[in-house]
């Protein structure tokens, strides 16, 4: 498994259409019989091209996932930001172990003593502690929990 945060894309890896896709799809995705066609139309491309471009951006590491974002807490579950101090020589191994958990929403490497950061999203509040304990048992490393105290909305916009 590769580490997305270590990958640096060449300046020309994304064209103007790729950037427009990234910006447009953050604002929603149509729930229609042909959602890719409907999402592609304002971008001036066909639905199959949108799918191809999303696939390519995922393959080159420009995006790590494409899919819905659900508010687990609003549905009776919980979110929690987590961090671990992972020895460099075990990073890829631990990354695979952590990411194997379906509760892991995303995972990032940071240049810090706590070098692995990830978000847990569970269907019940007690799932956070349970999943963190499972990861600790599998990896032999401590999972630090940083529960949400305040809501922030961060958008990722790219320059065209």
UniProtKB/TrEMBL annotation:
* Keyword vocabulary terms for this entry: Lyase
Under which EC number(s) is this enzyme classified? Answer: 4.1.1.111
What molecular functions are annotated in GO for this chain?
Answer: lyase activity
Catalysed reaction(s) here are:
siroheme + 2 H(+) = 12,18-didecarboxysiroheme + 2 CO2
Q: Which InterPro entries match?
A: AsnC_trans_reg2 (IPR040523), HTH-Siroheme_Decarb (IPR050684), NirdL-like_HTH (IPR053953), Tscrpt_reg_AsnC-like (IPR019888), WH-like_DNA-bd_sf (IPR036388), WH_DNA-bd_sf (IPR036390)
The keyword Nucleotide-binding is assigned to this record = no
Q: Entry's SMART domains?
A: HTH_ASNC (SM00344)
Q: Which Pfam families match?
A: AsnC_trans_reg2, NirdL-like_HTH
Start and end of every Siroheme decarboxylase AsnC-like ligand binding domain?
80-152
What pathway does the UniProt record associate with this protein? Porphyrin-containing compound metabolism
Where's the Siroheme decarboxylase NirL-like HTH domain? 18-63
Q: Which family does it belong to?
A: Belongs to the Ahb/Nir family.
State the name under which the record lists this protein: Siroheme decarboxylase NirG subunit
The species this protein was found in: Paracoccus solventivorans
């Amino acid at each position: 498994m590769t580490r997305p945060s270590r990958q640096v894309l060449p300046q020309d890896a994304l064209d103007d259409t790729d950037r427009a896709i990234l910006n447009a799809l953050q604002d929603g995705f149509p729930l229609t019989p042909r959602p890719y066609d409907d999402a592609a139309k304002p971008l001036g491309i066909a639905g199959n091209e949108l799918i191809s471009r999303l696939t390519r951006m995922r393959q080159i590491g420009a995006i790590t996932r494409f899919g819905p974002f659900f508010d687990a807490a609003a549905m009776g579950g919980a979110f929690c930001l987590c961090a671990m101090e992972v020895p460099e020589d075990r990073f890829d191994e631990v990354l695979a172990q952590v990411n194997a958990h379906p509760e892991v929403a995303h995972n990032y490497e940071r240049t810090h003593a706590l070098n692995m950061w990830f978000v847990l999203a569970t269907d019940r509040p007690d799932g956070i502690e349970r999943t963190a304990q499972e990861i600790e048992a599998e990896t032999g490393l401590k999972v630090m929990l940083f529960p949400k105290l305040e809501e922030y909305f961060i958008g990722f916009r790219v320059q065209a």
